[in-house]
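Self-study notes.
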Amino acid sequence: MFTKQNMHKAFLLISAAVITAGAILIMNLGDYFDAQGFLSFTVQSNLLTAIAFVLMVILYNRECKLRSYIAFSVMVSITITGLVYNLVLVPAVEEILPITSDFPNFSTHFLSMVLALGNYFVFEKKGTFTFSHIIAGVIFPIIYWIVFISIGEIINYFPYFFMEPQVIGWPMAFVWFGIIFIAVSVLSLALVFFDRWRGKKQSGQLMN
């Protein structure tokens, strides 16, 4: 029987497959496979979203708070991926192509974000997010920044221009960190408030 639960599970699994394909294809540069792409926030956030979708199917019928934290964390990370790419990188870096350039670019920088947000808005139960979820939302972007700002010079790899203090200077690197931290925190807080509002609204409708 094709219930809403089965439809939701199918959506998660199909989305995971599409997102994984996009992440792998974007590292395929035609004549060779760019394994260094695994270090980019884009690929990592996409693959984590795909993994999270599969885990959400596995944990589907279990009373497990971990599922909501997983959903929240990847939704924030993949949304940041889409927003930073389209609103910061495309306007600022001449070599950066718009999302309409090809499927891998479209998938990793836009479609994956739409699928993650669509999953929440269409399928997920509302009213489950708490203020502690904000920590889950900000932890991955912060850890990513700390790791690469620390080892970027050692491994000779800086994922993004705003994480390269040797070029833009340490003060500007921290300014960019502050901007990203505030953006991630505001996004996380907005999602929590929206979720609590929707949860109360749905509870009120059920009581009526």
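Second protein, same conventions, sequence then structure:
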Amino acid sequence: MDRHLHREELIALARKLQRSANQHLSECAECREEVELLRKFNMAGHSRLQDAPAGWVERAALLAQKHHSLEKIRKAVAALVFDSWAATQPIGVRGQASIGERRLRFEADRFTFDLRAERLPGEWAFVAQVTTESLPPGNFALSAGKKELTADTAGFFQWTADRPPRRILLRSDDTEIEIPELSWKKNRPR
């Protein structure tokens, strides 16, 4: 036989679940391969997996629930309640000591975020903590610049960077707290 099967003939053969006794398919490897491809890649109108395993269905349902819960994330912008660089220094404290260290406190809803920054030679060192009444201290993640951090068991974040972060974002399972953009310029005392 010189001619190959037409597209409609190939699809019709691929839709048959059982192997058909087609004379041309038994002789023509090219048409046989096309029928197999149509069966394998679900192009012939039959699902390759008629009944999904129960475990797959359960996982898909859980994914759908997680996606739905993302819509319920509460977002808040924290308010700055203390900045050591803005506080007036006692008369006896002057000079460079107050420039190399900064303490900040932010509050949002029922959350408190404390940040301590210290200027070291060539880098900054940071220690931060989130405290809240309802969540365990280690339940938050922190994004500072390009760094993604998780809290230790006491709820502390520790990291170093060449420069201090301008933006910080805190996330838990159901809450996202944005820290207002930070400026790290301070007027030197006279």
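Instructor comment on the second fold: Residues 7-40 form one domain.
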